[in-house]
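Researcher: Structure prediction, please.
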Amino acid sequence: MKNFVQPGNVVTFLGQTGGHLGGDLVVIGSIFGVCAYNTAEGAEGELALGGVYTLPKATGAITAWAKVYWDAAAKKVTTTVGSNTLIGVAMLAEISAATVVTVRLNDSFTA
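Model: Predicted structure follows.
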């Protein structure tokens, strides 16, 4: 196929304000993913758009297979919908005091 560009599970992006650490969840426009390595503001980086990752969690219990959202202000995963971005589902249940949660990212884009 002469018009094929790439599989699309990892895409190149420009580092946003303040840059990103490898492993950070990044939301840019209508996509989100996990930064593959440290990326300075304005520099090219790689963003993994799918897969299963351990991410920082807000206070509150999470049940297995619950929809989870990204709270951009707190930079943590939550089950609170509000203005937060749906990013996927929790793979395991976590107690309220847990600081991380294992998330299967939704390979789609934000609405």
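Model: Strands lie at 10-14, 25-28, 31-35, 44-48, 51-56, 67-71, 76-78, 85-90, 100-105.
Researcher: Thanks, that helps.
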